[in-house]
Design a protein that fits this description.
- It is built from 7 helices and 11 strands.
- With 250 residues, it is of the alpha/beta class.
- It has a 9-stranded mixed beta sheet, with helices on both faces. The protein has a two-stranded antiparallel ribbon with strand order 10-11.
- It is elongated and about 75 Å long.
Length: 250
């Protein structure tokens, strides 16, 4: 099994220079906890883009990084992962830092592939390759760690509370292999969840700026009905009638 770590072209918030995204360094640390082979994957949105920043990522424990050219990060990643049957886990950061990254990428990839998705992962406890499950600890408020077991393949977004990131080794950065690969198809042609398109129409205002809320105005002026412990059917009927009276299509 191989674990992939999604890498982005982050920007340092102080200097404005290219720099690794801290949460993605945590993702590398989580990937190394699995004890499996780990590779990095980076999607560049323009041909010939500078990928020197990837050497900085490699210093934290990546021997190989794949660079993909694409027009959409999540779509390109999804197409590439479908063509890699040995990859059963994708780890990402949890927060963008001003480059070509997005906090929505792990969720979009999981939706496209139909993989399980967990955010705020603090620790990888173990991967059961026999039954195809993964045990993790999810970071919760006040230092709480919640155990979660999920099926593989899966997408994990690293928490900022995973503990120290791996040490950076300059020699590893120099020795890392960075290769470019082409995806099999255009991710823009990937099917998305079908939605329903409707013409815009004005919504009725349920609040009155002069007399307060609709509920307050009805109570003050006596235009509404006061029901005390009514039967469910009668309460539902009165609610529907009120919504229709204010212009809602129900």
């Amino acid at each position: 099994m191989t674990v992939a770590v999604a890498l982005s072209a982050g920007v340092d918030p102080v200097s404005g220079r290219a720099a690794p995204v801290p949460s993605e360094l945590h993702a590398i640390g989580l990937a190394r906890q699995t004890g499996q082979s780990v590779i990095g994957v980076h999607v560049t949105l323009r041909a010939g883009a500078d990928t020197a920043i990837l050497r900085d990522y490699a210093a934290y424990g990546l021997d190989r990084i794949v660079v993909l050219d694409g027009a959409d990060v999540s779509g390109t990643l999804s197409v590439w992962l479908r063509a890699q049957p040995d990859i059963a886990m994708l780890l990402t950061g949890h927060k963008a830092s001003g480059g070509q990254d997005s906090g929505l990428v792990p969720f979009l990839v999981a939706r496209r592939l139909g993989w399980a998705m967990v955010s705020d992962v603090a620790q990888v406890v173990g991967a059961g390759t026999e039954n195809g499950t993964l045990d993790i600890l999810q970071a919760r408020p006040r230092g709480v760690r919640r155990p979660v077991s999920l099926p593989m393949p899966c997408v994990l977004a690293a928490s900022a509370r995973t503990g120290p990131v791996p040490d950076a080794i300059y020699a590893r950065a120099r020795a890392a292999e960075i290769v470019r690969e082409q995806v099999a198809s255009n991710p823009a042609q990937e099917p998305e969840t079908a939605g329903e398109e409707r013409p815009w129409r004005a919504r009725p205002k349920l609040l009155s700026g002069q007399s307060g809320s609709a509920a307050g105005g009805a109570a003050a002026g006596g235009a509404g009905k006061v029901l005390v412990a009514p039967p469910a059917a009668e309460a539902a009927r009165e609610i529907v009638e009120y919504l229709r009276s204010v212009g809602l299509d129900v």
